[in-house]
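DM from R.C. (forwarded with permission)

"hey, sorry to bug you on a friday — could you get me a structure for this? deadline for the figure draft is monday and I only need the backbone to look sensible"
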Amino acid sequence: MLCQFSFSNFRSFKKEATFDFQSAALSEHKDSLIRTEKGNDILPVSVIYGPNGGGKSNLIAALSCVISLVTEPVYKLGMHHVQLIMQQNVPCVPYLFDEESRKEPSSFQLFFRIGEYDYRYYISLLHDEIEKETLYRRKLGASRPARIFERNHGKISLGAVLGNKNINTEVNKKMPLLSFLAINYSIPAITDVIRWFEECIIRTYANSLAEQQILLSQDETSKKQFLAMMNDMGIGITEYRFDQHTNEFYLQRSLHDKLYELPFSEESEGIRKLFAVLPAILTALNEGRLIIVDELDTKLHSKLLRYVIRLFTNPEINKHGAQLLFTSHDMSTMKNSIFRRDEIWFAALDSETSSEVYSLSELRKEKGDPINNTAAYDKQYLEGRYGADPSLKNLLNWEI
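My reply, with the result:
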C-alpha cells in the first residue's frame, strides 16, 4: 500500500510536494479505511482536482517517472516478478521556469507498506544520472528503521538486511541500485520491494490512444466479474469476443431472446472507455494493487464514476487493500457522501507559477477552524474558497 509520496523539481513542481494516503483523524467514512493491526490506517481512494495547468497530471507523471525508472531495467532484462505490468516510461524533466532549477536534481521519495514492514525509498537524479538513493525499512511497531542500502554520488554502503552476500557495488550511474540488486541477486527484501513497484498500475486517458488498449482476460472467473460489473452499471453486455480473421473486437447483447453483435469501433466512447479502464480496476481489486489513473472521469457518466469509486471504498468488495488515485474535473462527485476530506486533494499554481498540492482536510476557515464534513464541497470549490479556483463562476458571468 502506498502511504506517502514526496517529490521536488519535477515539471511544474519546483518546491517539495507531498501527497499522503495516510488517514487523518476524521470522523467520516471510517468504515472505508484500509486497516492494519499496527501503523496508520490507509485511504483506499484519493482524487486530485484543480484547474487546467495546475499540476494534476504532473503529480501522476512524477509517480510514473520514479516507478518506471525502477521497473524498466528489470523488465527489459526479463527479470520481473509480475506477469502483468501496466505502466509507462516517463522521463525526468526538472522545473524549467528557473535557471537554478535546471541545474539541480529532481528528487522522489516513496513511503509504502508491504506486509509487516514499512519501506522508505528515496532517489534523486540530475541529467538522468543518479546522485543519491536510499532504501530503509521498519517493522510495524518498531521505533527505528533499518538501512538496506545508501548511495551517495557513487559511494554505496549496505545494511545488514542484505546479509553476507558478496555484492558488487560498481553500478552504472543511470541504473537504480534497487533495480541492479533485483536483477543480479535473490534477496527477499529487494524482491518484495521490486514486486511492489511492478504491481503499480498507471493509466493515462489524456491520450485517446490509451482507450484502444484493451486488456480483457479470457479466464472465465475474470470474465464473469467483468460482465457483472458492466451489468451493475446498466450496460447489458452478455459476452465479448475477438475475431482473428477480421481483426475486430465484438460486444454481444441479448435482446428479445435474440443475440446481437456490434463491432467495438461502433460502440459509444463511454463504453470504449469502460472496456479500457475496468479490466485494470478489476486486476487492482483482485490483487490488492495501487492503480493510478489520469483523467478517469473523461467520457464517463457521473454515476459510473461513483460506481468505480465505491468499488474501492466498500470493504466487502475491496478485500485485498487495493488503492485508487485519480485526477478529475467532475465536481458532481466532490461530495461529503462520497469522499472523506483527506481523500480530496487540489493541485494549483502558487504566486511563483510553481505547482503545489494540498488536501481539503488541511484547509482552514477564517478563524482557523477546519472545513466542516457537512459542507457543500463542490459549491465552495466553485466559489474559490479552496484556492485551486477553476474560475468557472467568472466564466459563467461573461457576456458575449
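R.C.: lifesaver. The chain has a mean pLDDT of 92.
me: no worries. The first strand starts at residue 2 and ends at 8.
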